[in-house]
Amino acid sequence: MTNDSDTLIRVEDVRTHFFLDEGVVKAVDGVSFDLARGATLGVVGESGCGKSVLARTIIRIVPRPGRTIDGAIWYHRPSEGGGERPIDLASLEADGAEIRDIRGGEITMIFQEPMVSFSPVHTIGDQIVEAVTLHRNATREEARAIAVDTLRRVGIPNAESRIDEYPFRLSGGMRQRAMIAMALSSNPTLLMADEPTTALDVTTQAQILELMADLQEEFGMAMMLISHNLGVVAQTTERIIVMYLGKVVESADVRTLFRDPKHPYTQELLKSVPKLRRRRQTERLAAIYGSVPSPYERPAGCPFHPRCPQFMAGECDVIEPTLKAVSEGHSVSCLLYSEETDS
Amino acid sequence: MSADSSQTILEVDGLKVYFPIISGLMRKVRGQVRAVDGVSFDLRVGETLALVGESGCGKTTTGRAILQAVQPTGGRITFMTREGDRVSTISAARDVQSIIRQEIQLIFQDPFASLNPRMTIFDIVADPLMANRLSRGRELEERVTEMLRLVGLSPDYMRRYPHAFSGGQRQRIGIARALIMNPRLLIADEPVSALDVSVQSQILNLMQDLQEQLDLTYLFISHDLSVVQYISHRVAVMYVGKIVEIAPTDDIFSAPKHPYTQALLSSVPIPDPEVRTRGGALEGEVADPANPPSGCYFHPRCPMAEEICRETEPPFAEVSPGHFSRCHFYADLDLPGVPE
Ligand SMILES: Nc1ncnc2c1ncn2[C@@H]1O[C@H](COP(=O)(O)OP(=O)(O)OP(=O)(O)O)[C@@H](O)[C@H]1O
Ligand SMILES: Nc1ncnc2c1ncn2[C@@H]1O[C@H](COP(=O)(O)OP(=O)(O)OP(=O)(O)O)[C@@H](O)[C@H]1O
Ligand SMILES: [Mg+2]
Ligand SMILES: [Mg+2]
Known about the structure:
The complex is a heterodimer. Chain A is α/β, with parallel strands linked by helices.
């Protein structure tokens, strides 16, 4: 898809499992993808498919009893004198100096739970200044100036005074803006945003998405946007990976994915999205049969087979498909397409 | 559907719910949050009316006032019982109250938080009947079985606990529990917001089937306009405690007559990368219901605001039969609605 010099992150067959008394949850189970410098990637899939764990895996903050047991995460880290040096984030010490230097600096994250990003007992200014001094080699005065400037850039009015507010004093939309400001203040190469607008109203969501798109162009960072809202990813990302039970089932550029989805899961998912039209719709909404199985009762063969309208008995429940290219930049993990690529 | 011809089941007239803002050591009342500020609408048997609008505009409070979970500051709520009596829900005698409590039920938003994790599915669904001592033993078990079948769950699951169920299944359990009292009006407060799209469709289809089978009336509270379009016959748009537009669903989506309705429609991210929706975002934030602006509450964010909007509150004007707008310029507005 991209030549090597463009690549920012290359994730190779990563597995993060949770070892619980009830059994092993294979939250991320053999995921691979590339993310180019300055590119935008959407990650979609139903609740529990592993989107958040995937992002946490990249910056090595998987909580216990979770462990990344396999795979590589090649981060092409810019080096001081220009050029870059690939390092495998998966092989780093989880709380070692190098990953701590990268996390919150070069790679930042907006968390799904707003209160994970911000501590309630410090002002937003103090928290941004802290992040900036830690990662940008700036004095406190310089850092404060950067913080005010970033808050202003994300559209917070009276940034000079709002900087001394506590997070809980801000409205949902303003807190989200402050969170984006914090994630941007270190000038990251990659921003991972986990459901950044899910808790917001459509009007505020539209404001925040526009803001993120503008800032992404302006700062030139790469962005990984996690969302279960297909409208949000359609409007903001260039490439999409679709996950199901810890695996990538399809990956393509956004237009191809929406115009010509190959995996039955992607097809069903797209059909089930209610579309805004001019007239009241009286036909029934398409729904995917059944529901996502419990992580302890992972189906054999293709994990989607019990819900799949194109299920082939004796194959899909036996053979586990792997991700294969169906065309340039478009990969699918489904037995329907396996012969075409094997021959 | 029987929606337009049939009789009225609920009339809400000038409903106000104000919450006092109390502060300081002396617990003095510093002001009032006008959560619901003069809301009027009626509901006809067998129809679905959607209540939409941004967070904090008063949707849930309106629903809670109808359910008698909060005391209105002013206005009237009149309910027509199964027996055909017109009763005021606010001043009703106790025997009438219990009729209302049986005929109006609530479906909650969050299927994860709303079910007691220590109760079995049987206990959860049977609870309204048991609490009111209306049924027990074999009869109760048969009734629970019937309800679970009705919402598409196997009665074999009756002795399990909620944690063993997916989000969609839990929402089915919540619906079974609401239906066991044989209600006529259901207030559904964001019933599918916490669910994945795939499962959301299952629940919306189920709600539609049940409506036809049981002649149910829904007040459907939601902030998701795409969902609203599938389920509702009419839509009421709220802004800072007031209904700013109410109309049949087609009119709201193809010929809205309030700039706020248009702003909501333009903000929905379209699940199609070929259609770019960027550039239409509304500026500013929702007004504070404790300290609303002068004139039309929407004027600080309205792209069309003029002097009169800052000074005078617009009347609730009838645009066409059944279509009302609270905008000074309703007659001149040519808003596109959802793009063709
Ligand atoms: N701390 C944890 N302990 C045990 N299991 C976990 C933990 N965190 C996640 N999991 C499990 O890992 C799987 C993937 O979870 P993840 O949070 O990544 O899903 P998601 O795709 O982000 O879902 P959502 O859309 O609901 O946010 C799930 O089965 C989840 O239950
Ligand atoms: N018990 C209460 N005491 C004081 N204020 C309240 C109370 N309940 C609601 N409010 C306020 O009344 C207003 C309307 O709240 P309500 O919950 O009805 O909004 P909503 O439209 O349902 O919003 P959401 O979409 O976030 O659920 C808000 O400003 C809210 O803070
Ligand atoms: Mg998540
Ligand atoms: Mg509410």
